[in-house]
Design a protein that fits this description.
The chain contains 13 helices and eleven strands. With 448 residues, the protein is mostly helical. The strands form five sheets. A three-stranded antiparallel β-sheet has the order 3-4-7. Helix 11 packs antiparallel against helix 12. The two termini are 36 Å apart. Bound molecules: 1-deoxynojirimycin (2 copies). One 1-deoxynojirimycin binds next to helix 3.
Length: 448
Amino acid sequence: MFVIYNIILLAVVWAESLYQPYVVGPLDALDTWIQQQDQIAHARILDNIAPFPFDPSARAGAICASPSRAWPDYYYTWTRDSALVINELVSWLIISTDNVTQAHMLAARINHYADFSRHLQKMPDRLLGEAKFMMDGTRFVGSWCNPQTDGPALRAYTAGRYAIYLLDNLKRGVGELVSMIELDLEYVMEAWRRSDGCDIWEEVKGVHYYTVAAQQRAMRMASRLYRRLGNSDTARIYGRVSEEMAGELRKFWNKEQGYIVATLDSNAGDRKPSNLDAQVMLAALHGSDDDEMFGIGSLEMLKTVKRIIRRFEHMYEINRATSTTIGGRQVPMGAAIGRYPEDLYDGTGVSRGNPWSLLTSGLAEYHYRLGLVYANSSGNLSRYLLEVGDRYMARVARHTDRDGTMYEQWNSNTGFGQGAIHLTWSYAAHLAASRARSQLISSLFPNY
Ligand code: NOJ
Ligand code: NOJ
């Protein structure tokens, strides 16, 4: 069964390669841009983690979604964005083995974040599912689409990965992290079946693929952590819940449509008839790839991602250009993608949706990681996937400001940055794609 499945998967990817010819050459020009952008992204992420010279009230470890305080006001700390950004710092920490200074600095930032998270968890009415908080660590009192139950799950996942890193490297005790994870997961276990939660785009209520996937991954991570701690009973409990969640995820595969849908029991009505949404691709990226429900290597995910690309390809004016110049060289360029076809959010208000930087970086990451899945069994296919990933990287390079400034969105007609400036998540998404690319390159060309 597994073998047949993989043959089908290969066939789908190969079919693609027939009408998009293999192009060799652009690697070096793009390499330079990526290296520069990595530096900038690192620096910008750290700039968005308090303490800040310009705002003494911001509490250490609080991460702003963006420093922009008006049009749009993103100067809050979102549980989701923060956990995803810190997850990227943890990945960065894990690979900085021979850079002690950097490792110390990163660990200090991550510890601040953990302290800040514990502070939020101690709030009197335990507002764990709240989407966002003030930068001084107090409650946001306006109205908002709440609860967003992916947040505590993402935080537990990140904290779990960090705890395992500390244990593996005999760095220090993990007791505080473990109790933090327990609080988040206790909440997730009682909240995950509710259908009145908001999706990651903070718009639709229902049961959301991304949210349940994030919750499932948190459970699996906790199960791994408890096994590592020698507590196999607790590990088994989390493992069992994770399997239950995987069963729930299966229901999102829509055979008639041929893709994984974003939301079940949705209240979106006519607002989102396609139910096709790039949050489904993000769900695959925000986990590891080993035998997960609809992971990176699954046919269902591949079909979904292809549908997303096809839908957006012809929607945005900027996608008419299929090549760009980087470092004086002409390189092929893939489509920029947005959140979902019916999107109206333009970065400050409601008009029409635009392509997003973090999602287009995500598309590059997806192809690199799919390449990694095949690196051992089919080198040619993996090389092809590296090229495809690079087309999306080139797209991000094209619309990133010359000085490396990233935004939330790109104007669909002009290609200029739009919406929240210095969106922390956009930088983290670039780094994740760049890391996946390096991994793929070193597995394909060990002497590179
Ligand atoms: C509406 C957007 O669609 C949503 O994603 C965003 O979080 C809020 N506005 C706040 O900016
Ligand atoms: C709007 C996005 O839709 C949401 O996912 C994100 O958490 C906030 N902006 C903050 O970046």
